[in-house]
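Supplementary notes (optional reading)

For those who missed the lab, this is the record we used. Protein: NADH-quinone oxidoreductase subunit A. Length: 122 residues.
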Amino acid sequence: MNYQPSDFLPIFVQLAAAMGFIVFTMIVTHILGPRRSTKLKDEAFECGIESQGDARTPISIKYFLVAILFVLFDIEIVFMYPWAVNFKQLSWTGFWEMAVFMGLLLAGFVYVIKKGILKWEK
């Protein structure tokens, strides 16, 4: 099926209308909204619990590394699902492409293991 640029015009019009509505709403609410600032209103609110301590408490970098690695390796499922659905249509070419993809992911995982990023204690 050949698509013409005019086939996408309704999508772009709807996108422009949505973006225009968002910008218009933000500008109007900023102009018309009340500007009452009090000490109580400017305080941090945490589910009704009084704030205490410093919000800048240092957290171990290991936590962030594990979280980023989880997201990185979890994204592979996004690529594997369409591949699995179309497995028969992709034939051996699709199989070898996914094998290369999985090999690269495995190489990254081996690197992470060798660097000791997933070890919590040294």
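If you only remember one thing from this example: The mean pLDDT is 86.
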